[in-house]
Amino acid sequence: FKMAPLSFEDSWTLFCSKIFKGNGCPAHLTDVAKGILGKCQGLPLAILAISGLLALKDLNIAEEWEIVRRSLVGELEGSGMLDRVRKILSLSYNDLPCHLKTCLLYLSIYPEDYEIGCHRLVQLWSAERFVGKREGMTTRDIGFDYLRELVNRSLIQVTQIFYEGIPYACRIHDLVREVVLSKAREQNMIAITTGQCTKWLSEKVRRLVVHSSSNNNTEQHQESQCYSFNHLRSFITIESMNPLIFRTLLSEVLKSSRLLKVLDLSDEETLEKIPNEVFNLYHLRHLNLCRTGVKAVPNFIGKLRNLEYLGLRETQVKELPVEILKLQKLEHLMVLKKVDVSDESYGYHGFKAPSKLGGLLALQSLTTIDASSGSVIVKEIGALTQLKRLGISNLRREDGKMPKWIAHLQSLVRIVLCWSRLRVEEDPLEPLHHLPNLVTIQFCGSYQGEGLCFKAGGFLKLKKLYLEKLEKLKWLKVEEGALPSLQELSLDRLPLLEELPLDIQQLRNLRKLYLSELSSQLMEKLENLNEETKDYRNIAHISEVVIELWADEGWRLHRLWGKKM
């Protein structure tokens, strides 16, 4: 947000758009609204914060607004610009319900200007037990509701959207972070270090967060006395740190933190082996080792009976031991093997799972499982009726049809199918056709047929469709009434695709179309689009159309129209 003050007219427009959603301010609130707005002195962040607070008040009761105005009068008298914003932000914080206060304070774990991954954040909230329970909803869904509430109050800025309504990445403004840090310190909620010796680090620390540091001086840490972390419940690293400091601090934490519930070491690339001490953490709920150098998961994993989340994305892990089946509380199993980037599958493979995987009935997320061992493991997945996110790779040619049981996964939101060989005579879309909650489909190198047809009345909630590396695909058809909610379509590395999807003009909610490495005939037509061509008329309703072209200097994005990336 810019700190330069807005004019009163622009301030009023911003204020009303946030609270009244484009409608005018009701007459009975006009005077008090202008009084409140005057206290913001045109500062955008202050206006957004106070309007986020007021948007939740009853518009029919002017006294609720008057209470807010009176609370600002004494607080802001004689304040400078920055102090004024801080005080308004503090007022917004004080107005939060308890559960949102805790969730907001937790954002103090992130460094200044850090882009926060929303899925990781919500998963941490859940592991910390900040997220309540609601009938018919998972803690993940409730956590995203909390996140949206904080966004609506302008305390969090969304920087990337996964699909409509679900933030993918976010930030907090520097001044919001300042207020949050201050409140978190007051409550002794979180301790932050760079791994160097810190005098304030006491035995009462419950959550320890380590930020990376440009200071590589390890002597200071080595000379410090060993810490005692008897009360520690969470240990989190943000970005990779000095390897020696990391190993020393991790060793000290694991030595004395038997009550640890959250262990998040993601991005620590120098970590190649899971320390044996981890498997003595009986209370551990959350173990995140994504983007580390970990190569294997030992049999001791079966000792972590309370584990709910196991993150091993972008590691070297290629299979899991049979002891994983002892983790009956496991809800999220995220494994994706990192291989050489020159590999034709663009660097990643699924993992080989034990044959009785269907016994992990609490699983909601399972990505990405290697099905090359045959139909037994494929059938096992069919027992996991709570699944919301599923990734499968290397479905064998002899098993080469979409399993019929997929039609029974009524909770499924996202499916990714990679490097499989679905048979030409089988329609891979048929079992997915009527899944009521399916939002995202990604097929990558997984179908050998020449065409795909999205039939009438199907895929009613689908919002994102990615078709990649389907080397024999020549045509796509969208029947009337299919894909009514589709917002984003990506067609990538389909070298024989000769035409845009038939009846694409029916997709009235389509907002983004991405096209890359299609047939030379189609790419040439796209480069020469003009208002008189049929293809132009068919896609003119789409707000953003991007094609990727090969030029002398390499691949480059060419935006036919739409916003800049």
Overview of the structural elements:
The protein is of the alpha/beta class. Among the domains are: 8-94, no CATH class; 98-177, Arc Repressor Mutant, subunit A, CATH 1.10.10.10. The protein is 27% helix and 20% strand. The protein has helices at 8-20, 30-40, 44-54, 62-76, 81-94, 98-106, 118-127, 139-152, 174-186, 219-223, 243-256, 375-381, 520-527, 534-539, and strands at 116-117, 157-163, 166-171, 191-193, 207-211, 234-238, 262-264, 286-288, 309-315, 332-338, 348-349, 365-370, 389-393, 414-418, 440-444, 451-454, 464-468, 475-478, 488-494, 512-518, 544-551, 554-561. It has a 17-stranded mixed β-sheet that branches. Strands 1-3-2 form a three-stranded antiparallel β-sheet. Strand 2 and strand 3 (166-171) form a beta hairpin. The protein starts with 7 loop residues before the first helix and ends with a strand. The model has no long low-confidence stretch (mean pLDDT 86).
How large is the count of helical segments?
14
Structural class: alpha/beta
Termini Cα gap: 19 Å
Q: Which geometry do the CA atoms define?
A: globular
Q: Averaged pLDDT, please?
A: 86
**Any low-confidence stretches, pLDDT <50, length ≥5?**
none
Number of strands: 22
* Largest sheet report: 17 strands, mixed
InterPro entries: Apaf_helical, Disease_R_plants, LRR_dom_sf, LRR_R13L4/SHOC2-like, P-loop_NTPase, WH-like_DNA-bd_sf, WHD_DRP
Keywords: ATP-binding, Leucine-rich repeat, Nucleotide-binding, Plant defense, Repeat
Protein name: DH200=94 genomic scaffold, scaffold_6937
Family: Belongs to the disease resistance NB-LRR family.
